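Usage

Read records sequentially. Each one opens with the input sequence:
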Amino acid sequence: MNFKSRTIDLHIIDAPSQRFGKAGASEAVALQYRLRDTDINIVSHIAWDQKSLQRRLSNVLRFRQSYRTPRKALPFIHIAAGHGISDGLLIGQDVPIGWPILNEMLSEINEATGNNLLLGLSSCHGLYGYRMACIEEQKPFHLLVAPWRARTTRQLVMAFARVYRGLLHDYTSVKQAIKEANRVRHKDGTLLDALYGWEVRKAYDLVGYDDPHKLMKRGNKDRRDT
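and closes with the structure output:
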């Protein structure tokens, strides 16, 4: 995908835990501060439960009519959840948003953009969102950026800021943007990884069941660089 040839808005949906919400913590503000010297158009949203998250996602689709012409414009949706588990997200007062539910909530945007949904999940274990691609034949996203493991909010803000700077400001490849995000290594692995919807389906169809190890240990020969 050529990011430079499209208008791409970064929609950040803050969905913090009750404790962080009361403290006024905002990942959108933190990312905007780190990206303040760029021309990236950042749109902020807040969600506390399933209904408010659905409303915010509906607002994303209405933000720019040309999202329905994906060669012209696309939204990059960044969901900053307070907590994450391998089965989904926990937002607000530990409201569970399982992957099947999130898949359904994102389906309208994904369909409108020709299955070119760009998605960042800033929560522990967010890359397990790949499981949305194991639910149905239609790929639920073009690109998913997230961590496999538990990470602190500060680590995720730093890493995602580098990814968005690379993709939406410097127009580097996904591979290079992820490499920049992972400049600071950790003893238990990298900060972020990226998966494409097509490669999740390929791995799923190959083994016939949900196998995260198949994706974690995949070889570069089957990766598609954009």
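Summary fields computed downstream for this record:
- Residues 7-220 form a domain with the Rossmann fold fold (CATH 3.40.50.1460).
- Helices lie at 18-22, 27-34, 50-63, 99-112, 153-168, 174-181, 197-207, 212-216.
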